[in-house]
């Protein structure tokens, strides 16, 4: 039967959209099922503050009345204004091993964003770089850490065989063992030791009872430190409060840090690492809290043994002070007094050689690689990232192999 593409219009359609990956990944040990309630809220145009500056359409692919795939198409006005581009985006991509359905879904998404003046479509983003994004192309042998995804290996083949889609950018997740100080380059500790004495910058942990103010401090650094990143859009205050509400239940003060100048009160750096709640979610295979899912979450929520370094940044004018090294050191100190002895850092743009060098000096190895694809929709449109040697991945792959002392497939 011919594939039919139609937009999500009813509650039943939305349920089919949310349910599809639970069928596609049934029996896959490394896939972590999301909580259906949280997915529904993220897709809810009235509850997700991202929709204050963006619009999206959700599509289902059906064959003979059976859902075989899904995708979203979206246009983010804040992205256009901040980056000065005309990107359209796609995300929430899930599909059976079916090239016809894949082509039809991508064509529908591309047509939708082109009608709204976009010169390309880039993805997957669900919906932003702060959410799950990118397609897993390396590292299928391990479960994803919190706020990252696991995808069928055939997805890569489907996307690369879809007409006009090319690799736009890769991002890396680095594996770090924070209790093994011997793997860290000694220079890191020397730099960290001088931050306060030479620059008057004090680093401390978040105070959870003052979470709202702490989140504001984090936002100040986050928007300044990441503003030049590929695909980055600054978070507004409403979005930060929304994320704080969602992440609050799993936030641990041991893994949330801020660096500031006491005399002026200026915040110059911040880091936010999250206990790997995926280790708990994977026990709730149906993604439902009722009738017994919530008991499982309560029973196991303190049994995580790794973290994800979600964000670690320093304002550009203070990046010479060694604040980054101090925040790294604090992570090692936290690992010594908590159940989490390591985890993953990222994602980090493959083109960010400075950050990838830092991960290598910390003794890290590349754990997983995610890829973004794009299709140009207008004649004369240029690729979103320059295709030069910095984007080949050769350097970071080689450093990862050296740090691990063994050859890894990357």
List the helices and strands and how they pair.
Blueprint: E1 4-7, H1 11-24, H2 36-43, E2 54-63, E3 66-76, H3 77-83, E4 87-95, H4 99-114, E5 120-123, E6 135-138, H5 154-161, E7 166-177, H6 186-199, E8 202-205, H7 211-225, H8 237-247, E9 256-261, E10 266-275, H9 278-281, H10 293-300, E11 307-314, H11 323-337, E12 342-349, H12 353-361, E13 365-376, H13 394-404
Parallel strand pairs: 4-5, 11-12
Antiparallel strand pairs: 1-2, 2-3, 3-4, 5-13, 6-13, 7-12, 7-13, 8-9, 9-10, 10-11
Domain N-acetyltransferase: 3-161
Protein name: N-acetyltransferase domain-containing protein
GO molecular function: acyltransferase activity, transferring groups other than amino-acyl groups
- What is the domain tally? 2
Percent of residues in beta strands? 15-25%
Please report the number of helical segments: 13
From N to C, what is the helix and strand string?
Answer: EHHEEHEHEEHEHEHHEEHHEHEHEH
Tell me the name of the CATH homologous superfamily of the largest domain. Answer: Gcn5-related N-acetyltransferase (GNAT)
Shape: globular
Protein name: N-acetyltransferase domain-containing protein
Organism: Patulibacter medicamentivorans
Domain N-acetyltransferase: 3-161
InterPro entries: Acyl_CoA_acyltransferase, BcerS-like, GNAT_dom
